Amino acid sequence: MTSVLSVSSTPPPTPLDLDVPREIDPGLSSTDRMFHRTVRAIGIFVLVLTGSIGVFLGYQAIPTLRRYGLSFFSESQWEPQLDKIGISSTLIGTFEVAAVAMVVAFPLGLLTALFISEYAPPRLRSLLVSLVDLMAAVPSIVYGLWGFFLLQPHAIYLSRWLHQYLGFLPFFHVDTDPNAADWAQSRYTASAFIAGLCVSMMVIPLATAVMRGVFAQAPLGEREAAYALGAAKWGMIRSVVLPFGRGGIIGGTMLALGRALGETVAVLLIISPAFDIKFRPLEVGTDTISALIAGRFGEATSAQLSALLAAGFVLFLITLATNTVAAILIGRSRSGSSLDI
Amino acid sequence: MTALIEHEQGQQSELEVPDQGDSPLDRPRRIGARPLDLNLSLAATAIGSLALVWVVYEQLLAASGSLGFMLCWYVTFLLMYAGTTALGNPRMEVVDRLAAAVVTGAAALVGFALLTTIFYTFQQGWTAFTHVNFFTQDMAGVGPQDPLTRGGILHAIVGSAIEVGIAAGISLPLGIGTAVYLTEVGGRASKTVRTVVEAMTALPDILAGLFVYTVLIVALGFQRSGFAAAMALTITMLPIIARSAEVQLRVVPGGLREAGFALGASHWRTVRLVVLPTAKSGLATALILGIARAVGETAPVLITSGDSTFMNLNPFNDPMNSLPLFIFSAVRSGQPLFIARGFGAASVLLGIVLLLFVAIRFLARDKGVRR
Fold first, then answer.
1. What is the value of ipTM here, to two decimals?
2. Is the N end or the C end of chain B the one with fewer CB atoms within 10 Å?
3. How many CB pairs under 8 A join A and B?
4. Hey, is the C-beta of B221 within 8 angstroms of any chain A C-beta?
């Protein structure tokens, strides 16, 4: 489109010789020039506005990093009054919650996408697609209420069961006796595990939407070829749909991971803050960067605010990297060119 | 290759079963039909595994927790289903049916979780919902022990409407302008703009709030107000609207634009009279998508707007409450009556999102445009 209307250079000086062909491209009218300038200005403004957030976060993080140096990443406590500030425990908590969320969301999202694109009756398909969209549109605070009031009382039994039978694995360990007649329920509540389960509800629709979009584009010819070679439905899916959609599967998962890392309110509602470095997601107490910011910004002095901004900058860099990788993978997959995420 | 051979063997064994009379073989097989034994074994194993798990789990082990019960039931069901199928079918058929059961089960679990979320919220919100004053009063002067017949969430509904309204009013023209720039005008900077806008959809919502808090409230000395919250919401909404509007403009057929140019229309007139009207319903979808996201955002308003108990119509002065913030603080207070109010407000919020969602589907169906 643009090439048709490209701005011509200044018209040549009026020729004396009449045989010289007339310049056809009249250039842009003044209205169009105005239009282009306005729209370009809006684009640049949005670029500056959104870009400045990243730059601003990075700039604000400098004083903190200069003051605490690398101990900002190795210190686990967040005690501004003792001048001990570090994000190692919160960073681990962030990844723990996201890891639990992805362990649940990846298989469920993948299988749901397969169900919608391969197994569901064609009449129901568009309804199911809109249900997934609806699931993505439900506010995260509503999932937070669901996780806190409905899921948590049930999920602690699952936590205890995992501890009872798989407790020999270090990451299923909880510091209490699971077999006691009056077992300590409160040791299993408010954990990274439950927060992760809740976050998985928010990221499943993201992963499902991307994966389903890719699966639906698996070429019909290759599907029929697989059937013609004698494959059953699952054989066809394994040999055609899944290899075709590999980029979308990984990309959708990364996209979901990016969202899971940054989730705030549901996590804030469920967890009880704790700054220990531990790899026991079933046990009470953890903290994530976003929950730390939401919990601490109120009483923060300017130095502490800068520290929170530095923590936010680290989170931003992580989610940015995750989403960029996701976008590249989705774009590079054989099918991704026309897919919007 | 092995799978293929196995399948052939399976076919042969199936073919041997009917006697060699002409008529049954001549009848074409229905391709998509579900054989009777599939349905029967499905139902039988479902019931059988339920009974077995009930006896073992509830009676013998006396374990508790409905989540664990469902999990055990499902695993037992899969094992029994595989066993029953293996009695009369080749391995490939067993794997195929098992895969179908796993896929369907996972999808059912996700659907079940979504349904419980929606129903639980409405069910818990019902107690507050039945009082008319819940929608007509604010919370000014309502104590922690006051019954549900006093106080309501009108101030939060109005606050949400004002904040989201301002945010939409700012981000809609900017978002569509950016989309027009990216698709219609282009230029050297357009690739950068697209990359940065795309990257900003990755911005965790809490950071948008923290950015506005630091710039507007700490550095520039504004109060915590509805306007600050609206700014934070704008930052979360703008990339979403710009991104989905760009997708909508890109699917406008190039032939329509060329027809406009061929009729001698200028670029501006073509965009205004051809491109934008063609994508109208898609752009409305983009807007509603952004609003649905913004109205439920809790983290940015938590930081920027402040929590008020009274009605405040002025976005520039004094704190302004909003629905997500009201829910959050009500639930955090721990008072049973406030939790009931929080669920009532959550039902209202979920109802609004559902309505917006139905609007999106309606718009999308209207023009047959896939979102």
1. 0.83
2. N
3. 289
4. no
